[in-house]
Amino acid sequence: MIARLLDGVPGRGLAVLAGLLAVLLAAPWVANDYVLTVLIIVLYSAYTGQAWNVMMGFAGQLSLGHAIYVGLGGYAAAALYVHFGVAPWLGLAAAVAIAAACGAVIGFLAFRFGVGGVYFAILTIAFAEFARIGFDHFRWVGASSGFFLPVANYTRNDLWNLRGDPTMFYYVMLTLTIAAFAICHVLLKSRIGYYWQAIREDEIAARSLGIDTFRYKMYAIVLSAGMTAVAGVFFAFYYNNLFPEQVFHISRSIEMILGPIIGGIGTLFGPLVGALLLTGLSEAMQELLTALRLDVPGAKQVFYGLCLLVVVMALPGGVWPWVAGKLGLTGPRS
Amino acid sequence: MTVLLAVEGISKRFRGLLAVDGVSFQVARGSIFAVIGPNGAGKTTLFNIIAGSFAPNGGSIAFDGKRIDGLTPDEICRRGIGRTFQVVRPFPALSVEDNVLIGAMLRRRDPASARRHANEVLGRLDLFGKRHQPASTLTLPDRKRLEVARALATDPKLLLLDEVMAGLRPAETDRMVSILRELNRDFGLTILLIEHVMRAVMALAARVLVLHHGAAISEGAPDAVVRDPAVVQSYLGAEAVD
User: Fold this and answer.
1) Structural domain harbouring B94
2) What's the whole-model pTM score?
3) Which residues of A touch B (CB under 8 A)?
4) Does some domain include residue B21?
5) Which residues of B touch A206 (CB under 8 A)?
6) What is the ipTM of this complex?
7) Domain count, chain A
8) How far apart are CA B206 and CA B203, in angstroms?
């Protein structure tokens, strides 16, 4: 298993990977609460970016409504916990199943009836909006006034119920992120990964080589939805509150895809690199603007947007393929 | 002779235009069969019907004794028909090797053995030395070869080639002809080709079908067909006979 994971990774890449892992594992001992919180956001973005990357980066299906899977996953596990006392790790199974089923419905409608490209993207937005409006009126989970998890006085970390301090959440998110990377790495090197890339590159040519493109696109959306739902469960138990206007909002879906786009769509490390850059940039921007007393509303967004523009124009393939090429770490597509 | 592909009265209509009009022919197992005709004669449409891209409006197609008309392109490939595209469709961002590997994975689930098979096919098509290049960097003649390699990697019983010689220089055409001959001889691969390059058709095909305005106007051995007055008038022009 380990041998298969490391197959084809150059020595220098391994060294960098080991170094990165060591830094991430040691972070809670050296970082203060603020840095740790930022790191949790980075890992969360890297994880959700990776999940989205399965669909767009690997299989070439543009989803602009991935917030729906975060929301469904979060609400499912939170509702089971609050109403029935089901532990989040058990609720996780239900959350993944519900999100995956939702992904299957969207995928079936789109792929069976030949809805592709931008029309598929619009369909994914539409479903996320249905969910947002639907949950706004869903009284069992608080409707538009929000759904809250009890934050009552816990004295020690309770991993089983996901109640604890940021360090515990940090390690949970780190584990999830590493698992997502490992899964994607193995998938990309197997038949399903190659078939996804064939579909992404040219669906008609892929079919002519015997690939059942409908089936493989379904695998991509179901897996991506399920993975994203796991992040939703984390989100619910970390923030302890869910508002339909926030979790299902299109801006959540857009945020999720910025990391992989900046980092490098279709690459394994793109989502992590993108998440680091974007979150780092966002936090640094805040500090800088405050220091310069330019902290007027909207200023941060304008600077943020400009930085994104520069990256996209200078490195249209993303930051990671460029960095990897410069450092001689891996091929352009790994 | 045993028949590998039997096309019976196939028709295809695009709104008012009858693109293919009741065409019938049979391709013998292990043979090379060519379809020729002027532009717009319906060759590519006929080809796309066999490959499953279009369903015919009438007629039937049997491959290896079973009906295949109306099946999807991927199912037809799984039944054992490989195809190329007239306007080449490589997977541009992937390496030449990975392009062919994806074809090889159809009948080899294990990536290592699929890769071995892909490399073998690349060797036959003179692409082994370029296997690590992205497909987008290949020249047109190499892309044409990649099309053939990718289709071949699916281990077809029948290979459909849509104008793989178009745009090649004479020396490259001769090389492609000898590659196809080797495949036919060494593996008993049956080949159905659409071709404009008569030099290649004459060198390769045992039988030729001529289409004109969607209908078959002549069929037979290449040297007989090119002397058929109907063919000369509609397609080749008088000077081709000499």
Assistant:
1) 90-155
2) 0.92
3) 189-191, 194-195, 197-198, 201-202, 204-213, 266, 333
4) yes
5) 91, 102
6) 0.92
7) 1
8) 9
